[in-house]
């Protein structure tokens, strides 16, 4: 493995003595399964609302596939105006209560995952991070009219004892956040993660309801005071729009009602997967993996068309 420390560069704005005391690190990487753009929206809300400064920047040129995820450029008449440089940065953030924590935000690296993971672990050790928490969202066969679900996972099961598993052992496409949690656990570092369940029919759109749920889950675990008010307002507006669309289309209404019955049956019995059909059995790991693969394929096609 090439030296992981050459993947990132520390800035001049390092913490003062005593400024960081075993902080939490929140990890929000885009590019994998982030249905409803929940992880991105949550991280952007943090940076737009809370005081922060960058501590480290990764050299994405070494690990980013520009042809798979082409950054946007602006062309004006006869010349290029701008280029949206992708960035993966570690920021020091102060929450609403004055507590400091770290936020790693940016696109998921495409290659050299073990080296990237080792580099992040170096930063975890440098800043004596007490808990690393990843955040993203997955598409699920759930209705927008019911409380949003959350899948929790951790190196220490005691951290997530209040969350009920939604499925048993499965085989799904890998992701850097998952690998990071695995490697940190193997190094006796504490890590956890949350994946909120986004209705599959809105998975390609911004879904602030899911972003709010992510921040709330992180707050519940870590005690951080994170901003959710604006996301909650946006979520209520999205709910109104979805209700209006359902009311205007009988097929959508029937679909939502079927999902409601499935959801209510699951909550009532606490014994069936939300991905299962009304009378079907639990999906296999291969079926769940195939669902994620289809979502990723749809995402890649959408990006190729230049959709937002």
If you had to describe this structure to a student in words, what would you say it looks like?
Strand 6 (89-94) and strand 7 (100-107) form a beta hairpin. Mean pLDDT is 88; it is low at 271-285. The chain has 308 residues and is α/β, with parallel strands linked by helices. The chain has one domain (4-304): PAC-like subunit (Rossmann fold), CATH 3.40.50. 36% of the residues lie in helices and 21% in strands. The protein is globular, with a radius of gyration of 20 Å.
Helix and strand layout, with pairings?
Layout: E1 8-10, E2 24-30, H1 38-49, E3 52-58, E4 73-76, E5 79-83, E6 89-94, E7 100-107, H2 113-126, E8 131-140, E9 150-154, H3 176-186, E10 191-199, H4 208-222, H5 229-248, H6 250-269, H7 285-304
Parallel strand pairs: 2-7, 2-8, 8-10
Antiparallel strand pairs: 1-3, 3-6, 4-5, 6-7, 9-10
Q: How much β-strand is present in the residues?
A: 15-25%
Would you identify the CATH H-level superfamily? PAC-like subunit
Strand order of the largest sheet: 1-3-6-7-2-8-10-9
The number of helices is 7
The biggest beta sheet reads: 8 strands, mixed
Brief summary of the model shown:
The chain is of the alpha/beta class and 308 residues long.
Q: Key features?
A:
Rossmann fold; 10 strands; alpha/beta; 36% helix; 7 helices; globular; 21% strand
């Amino acid at each position: 493995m090439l030296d992981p420390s050459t993947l990132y560069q520390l800035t001049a704005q390092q913490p003062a003595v005593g400024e960081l005391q075993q902080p939490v690190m929140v990890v929000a990487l885009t590019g994998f399964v982030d249905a409803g753009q929940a992880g991105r929206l949550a991280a952007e809300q943090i940076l737009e609302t809370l005081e922060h400064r960058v501590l480290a920047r990764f050299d994405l040129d070494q690990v980013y596939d520009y042809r798979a995820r082409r950054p946007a450029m602006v062309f004006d008449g006869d010349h290029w105006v701008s280029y949206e440089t992708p960035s993966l940065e570690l920021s020091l953030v102060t929450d609403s209560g004055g507590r400091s924590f770290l936020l790693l935000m940016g696109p998921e690296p495409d290659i050299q995952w073990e080296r990237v993971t080792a580099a992040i672990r170096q930063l975890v050790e440098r800043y004596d991070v007490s808990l690393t928490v990843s955040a993203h969202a997955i598409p699920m066969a759930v209705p927008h009219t019911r409380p949003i679900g959350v899948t929790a996972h951790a190196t220490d099961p005691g951290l997530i004892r209040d969350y009920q598993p939604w499925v048993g052992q499965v085989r799904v496409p890998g992701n850097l956040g998952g690998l990071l949690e695995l490697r940190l656990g193997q190094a006796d570092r504490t890590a956890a993660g949350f994946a909120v369940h986004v209705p599959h029919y809105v998975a390609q759109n911004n879904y602030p309801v899911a972003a709010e749920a992510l921040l709330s889950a992180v707050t519940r675990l870590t005690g951080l005071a994170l901003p959710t008010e604006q996301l909650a307002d946006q979520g209520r507006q999205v709910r109104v729009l979805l209700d209006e669309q359902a009311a205007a289309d009988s097929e959508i209404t029937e679909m939502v009602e079927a999902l409601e019955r499935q959801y209510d049956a699951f909550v009532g019995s606490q014994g069936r997967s939300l991905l299962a059909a009304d009378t079907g059995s639990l999906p296999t790991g291969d079926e769940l993996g195939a669902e994620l693969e289809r979502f990723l394929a749809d995402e890649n096609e959408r990006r190729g068309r230049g959709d937002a």
